[in-house]
Design brief:
Blueprint (H helix, E strand, L loop, with lengths): L3 E10 L2 E6 L2 E6 L2 H4 L8 E10 L4 E6 L2 H10 L7 H10 L2 H10 L2 H4 L7 H17 L21 H11 L4 H10 L7 H14 L1
Antiparallel strand pairs: 1-2, 1-4, 2-3, 4-5
Helix pairs in contact: 4-6, 7-8, 7-9, 8-9
Length: 202
């Protein structure tokens, strides 16, 4: 099992990135939460990884923090939640925001993530509730009721746009969704959440 990589970031195009480690290029897939914290191309980067073995491919997933990887590993244990959907969940909300949804049993917020239906959301609420309580390092790190803010460097609008495209929305639709978001939304996470709310209401 490959647990982590440290090398030169040679390419990044959500949700994929390429890291050169001693002359070997590793192709990885990462959630948008990880992309927000990546340095510029050419800089050194250190990432936590998780290898998923399928019949047709070995896919290496990358995470900027151990908490993201931990949550990813717990999510893919849930029935009918594969790596792609787990990546979408981590792209659409922060670890803390997800944990707050679990604590509040908030299915409405979860179903706004593309690919998460009502039954899947309810399954996540049931199966993840006990797991997050028993896992050290996955407790909410912000006060209850206070959502974690997204990383704003690089332009929140641009980051939100990239995240929504990575989640499967067409660029033209993303533009319309972001224009419809409440003007009070400032952080990347607020913009993404607002856009998802607009999409769910249509």
């Amino acid at each position: 099992m490959i647990g982590s990589l440290r090398g030169r970031l040679t390419a990044k195009q959500p949700p994929q990135l390429l890291v050169d480690v001693g002359g070997v290029g590793y192709e990885l897939e990462a959630p948008m939460s990880t992309f927000y914290g990546l340095p510029a191309t050419g800089a050194e980067v250190s990432l936590f990884t998780h290898l998923v073995v399928r019949e047709d491919a070995h896919v290496l997933f990358a995470f900027g923090t151990e908490r993201e990887r931990r949550l990813f590993r717990e999510l893919i244990k849930v029935s009918n939640v594969g790596p792609k959907l787990a990546l979408a969940l981590l792209s659409g909300m922060s670890v803390d925001s997800f944990l707050l949804c679990i604590e509040a049993q908030d299915a409405d917020t979860l179903v706004r993530i593309p690919g998460v239906g009502r039954k899947t959301a309810e399954r996540l609420l049931i199966e993840m509730r006990d797991r997050v309580r028993n896992l050290t390092g996955l407790q909410v790190s912000v006060p209850a009721g206070q959502a974690a803010t997204g990383v704003s460097h690089g332009g929140a609008q641009a980051e939100a746009f990239s995240a929504l495209v990575a989640l499967g929305y067409k660029p033209a639709e993303v533009t319309r969704l972001l224009k419809a978001v409440d003007a009070a939304a400032q952080t990347t996470e607020e913009l993404i959440r607002g856009a998802l709310q607009v999409a769910a209401a249509r």
